[in-house]
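Lecture notes, unit on protein representations.

Consider one protein chain, 490 amino acids long.
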Amino acid sequence: MNPHSEPSKPSTNDNSSAYSADSAGTAEPSGSPGSSDASGPAGPAKPADSSAHPADAAQSPETEAQVTLRSPAELADALPYLMGFYPDDSIVLVALHGERGRFGGRVRLGIPTDTTQWPDVSDQLADCLVSAGQDRATRPVGILVFLCQEPAAGESGKDVKDRLRPLAQRLRTACGALDVPVIEALCISNGRYWSYCCPDFRCCPADGTQLVMPGTSVMAAAAAYAGMQVRGSLKAMEARLTPRTGTRAADQEKALDAAAGALVPRMLRQDGAAVVRRDTLDLAGAMIRRFRQDTPSGSNRARDACDDALITDGEAADLILGLQDRVTRDRAAEWMDGPEAAPALRLWRALARRCAGGYAEHAAAPLTLAGWVCWSTEDGPSARVALGRALSVDPDYLFAQLLHRAINDGLDPEPLRRCLRDQRGEASTADGALAAAAEEASQPGTRSGPARPGAADRPRKPRGATGPGARTTDGRGRRRAGRDGDRSRR
């Protein structure tokens, strides 16, 4: 399970019984379950990244803008601003801290289609959120639960609410077992919301309550004032990273087969690995310059289609296979800021869409690079989506694991950027640079709470060779796992 998660952060206490939130993304629980009075951030939460700004916790009450959310509808409307996107088909848990229940950490996971998994998923999500707060000495005082799912064919929003009621109850039980009550549990479907906590049909009718019109809520006004944006739905964000299908996928897979076949003899030559690395980086640099000179406009779908047209199947194949080499990938990570960041991100997304058929696992490298560029450019929500997809195609991909943990631990990407800049030309890796950055960021005075033990703190096992041609493949150039299941991925 790989939920999008962010740890809780310390909050200030006051005597209000309403929900409230500050510009750092916090909230405060209402006095009783099912309450329709809430207060939320006036300078809204930075989407899905509350822990990434520990300095906010030190702000005085006078410097923290606040806004009041006065109904469950406004709580539901605030959810995309907390996450940075509309969480389709998702379970979202939000921690509340202090007497006023300031918004803290959040966890998100897709709703399992297998209902037998609901008890285990509920227990794990509740434990993840509560333990994150305990690690930082800020145990939640309450939790908000959101179940977001659109109706299937022949269903209504009310049908979705009724179908997901056992999941909501199981989540409430799991949180209660950890002595943290669920203050409100909402089902959001088809433009309406239902409360699982409020039994009063006068305020929570059986047919649900219409959500406020987009852009008209106090949260939307606060977000516009703060310059925040919601990046569309989660499905739309994931679609930009999903491999192509149909005839185009078959053509790309043929190009990957041909490139894999040509790669082996090149790697067997003297200094073959160094030559392949140099050629891959030269090609990537040329593609970034090409993308930079041709900036498309229109919808995300139209812009992605234009980007796909800028790179041939053969060029994409050479880059995808070349980036499987760890050293090459780490050198490519240097395109992370300045004028190179945007075209580099477009290129990594385009390459992720080209990892078709049997080459799906090869997408871990471009997806991780996309997540790194997003994080480096302060787009935490997009970074989490890209890294989540990278870990879904290859759960053992170390660079994605480390980046995902770093974001969730609220680390600043600047130490890693500095390490990559300082170590250009050296035989160092982004994995090692990230571990060094995490150690630097965890020094006293750089974080608001103790660092959580991460993958960088655990001893590493031998991983095997790092060259692009070092993996065992079948007749079509596809990777096979060894007998021990280690795919030699980092």
